[in-house]
Amino acid sequence: MELSEVEAKLKFAFPDRHRQALLNPNDPIHELCAFLVISDSDTLYQNICRKNEWLHSSDFNDPWPNFLIAFASNQSGDYFAYDTRKSPVSIVYIDPDKTVEENLQDEEALWYNTFEQWYKSYTMKLPKAEQAFVDIAKLRDYSLDIVHKEGKHKARVFAAALGLTRNDADWFREQLLVAAKAHDCRLGKMTDHGQRYILDFTLNRNQKSAMVRSVWNIRPDEDFPRLITCYVL
Fold first, then answer.
1. Are 83 and 67 in contact (CB under 8 A)?
2. What is the spatial distance between Cα 203 and Cα 6, in angstroms, rounded to a whole number?
3. pLDDT digits (tens, 9 = 90+) for 13-71
4. Is the link from the previous residue into 88 a cis peptide, with omega within 30 of 0?
5. What is the Cα Rg of the chain in Å?
6. What residues are paired with 214 via a beta bridge?
7. Of 14, 13, 31, 60, whose CA–CA distance to 202 is shortest?
8. Residue 115's pLDDT band (cuts 50, 70, 90)
């Protein structure tokens, strides 16, 4: 399917930079996220037209309004979508833990003014990564603690996917700090507690491998990132 046909079907003209990414399979954005494409794919999760048809249909548990057009995902049930009610259009992050309406009404929802701004958020490094701080107690006594009241669910997934236990907290901390410096991140929400950054990376341990999401925050009164949570995707 040609790009012009896709735009006609979606009744939406993509920004120039988005068009470039759609037409160039070697654009790095295709490796950084599940970037929906225009090619005739057998997979619902890759084709932008099929994906939007599904999201707007009654087959989806929370059908989207016509003014939202999905174009990318982190493959965790979330989406980035154009809000075409606005001129120029803006981009909103659709959190899977909320309804579409709740996302649109959320004052803390993640918005981008342009595609370029969204794109750059995927190709940025964690600010002051060399000063990143990871509280070892948060890992040992929460994320990797299978008996912790709240953290046990994450801990059991870490144990199943990578064989990690509380005894591996020091090793895990070092891997998080290495990833903070080595990998690109994307901009997260700005809250009263600071600016968040989301960094996903592949973690290998004892011949096992898993994609781990780490979320970092720079507090208003600080200039370095602190790990606030991490989990297996």
1. yes
2. 37
3. 999 999 999 999 899 898 888 899 998 655 556 899 999 999 999 999 999 999 999 99
4. yes
5. 19
6. 199, 230
7. 31
8. very high
Q: What is the DSSP letter of 133?
A: B
- Written as one letter, the residue type at 79 is Y
CA 76 centroid distance within chain: 8
Which residues, at least 6 apart from 187, have a Cβ–Cβ distance to it below 8 Å?
A: 110, 121, 124, 195, 196, 197, 198
Rounded to whole angstroms, how far apart are CA atoms 143 and 166? 8
Q: How far apart are CA 220 and CA 177, in angstroms?
A: 21
Distances (CA, A) of 156 to 75, 79, 172, 201, 231: 21, 27, 15, 19, 10
Specify whether the CB–CB gap between 221 and 130 falls below 8 A. Answer: no
Asked whether the CA dihedral 106, 107, 108, 112 is positive or negative, the reply is positive
Angstrom distance (rounded) from CA 18 to CA 139: 39
Residue 187: CB atoms within 10 Å: 18
Q: Which two tokens mark 149? A: 């009241």
Which has the closest alpha carbon to 158: 176, 175, 143? Answer: 143
Q: Which residues touch 87 (CB under 8 Å, ≥6 apart)?
A: none
d(CA 226, CA 47): 37
**Mean per-residue pLDDT for 146-173?**
95
At 41 the pLDDT is 58
Q: Which residue bears the tokens 């990998």? A: 183
Report the alpha-carbon angle 70-72-75, nearest 5.
Answer: 115
